[in-house]
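User: Hi! I have a protein structure encoded as tokens and I'd like to know what sequence might fold into it. I'm fairly new to this, so please keep things simple.
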């Protein structure tokens, strides 16, 4: 966990707990979907300036699957979920019988990865709503495959005018020999960040 001049250690610790809850919810849901035990191997939270986001996603040219959604209700903001493209393929592949998903262009892959993305995004939203007890709603998810720099730029374009920083949750899942890492990027409006922290009691 990394603190920030703008947030105290206790505030970052409270926000990190939200990420841990979201990771556990995601692991439980994905385990049911793929029919195999999936566990959370690591979880952390960091507050970063927008321009540093591509670095933690593997570099600006890393191919990733990105899922956008907007948050409304007691909190306003944006969520971007990012999974390395090869890990998204490997995770989705386990949802089907051997040979059903031949490559990342397969229609079954697109259906599967959208389902995985929806589960992961919903898990963070549920964790945020459950831990803060705030009524939160989201728009339908939008899934794209692109370079990390382009995907994070889209988040900057949508949310950067309202916030200079983004909260990055990193979680690593393990399923047998499969290791899949995902990043949730939470970019609440400044007033909404205060609302979240107050609801968390910090």
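Assistant: Happy to help. Inverse folding works backwards from shape to sequence: for each of the 202 positions I chose a residue that suits the local structure. Here it is:
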């Amino acid at each position: 966990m990394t603190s920030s001049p703008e947030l105290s250690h206790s505030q970052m610790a409270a926000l990190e707990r939200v990420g841990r809850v979201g990771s556990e919810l995601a692991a439980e849901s994905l385990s049911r979907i793929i029919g195999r035990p999936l566990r959370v191997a690591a979880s952390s939270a960091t507050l970063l300036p927008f321009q540093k986001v591509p670095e933690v996603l593997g570099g600006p040219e890393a191919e990733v699957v990105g899922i956008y959604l907007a948050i409304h209700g007691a909190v306003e903001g944006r969520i971007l979920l990012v999974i390395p493209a090869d890990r998204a393929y490997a995770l989705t592949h386990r949802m089907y019988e051997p040979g059903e998903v031949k490559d990342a262009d397969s229609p079954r892959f697109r259906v599967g990865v959208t389902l995985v993305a929806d589960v992961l995004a919903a898990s963070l939203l549920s964790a945020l709503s459950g831990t803060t007890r705030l009524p939160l709603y989201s728009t339908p998810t939008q899934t794209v495959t692109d370079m990390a720099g382009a995907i994070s730029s889209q988040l900057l374009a949508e949310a950067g005018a309202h916030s200079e920083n983004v909260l990055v949750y990193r979680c690593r899942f393990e399923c047998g020999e499969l290791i899949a890492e995902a990043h949730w990027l939470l970019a609440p409006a400044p007033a909404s960040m205060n609302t979240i922290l107050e609801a968390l009691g910090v």
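A useful reference point when you look it over: Residues 9-199 form a domain with the Chemotaxis protein chec fold (CATH 3.40.1550.10). Feel free to ask if any position seems puzzling.
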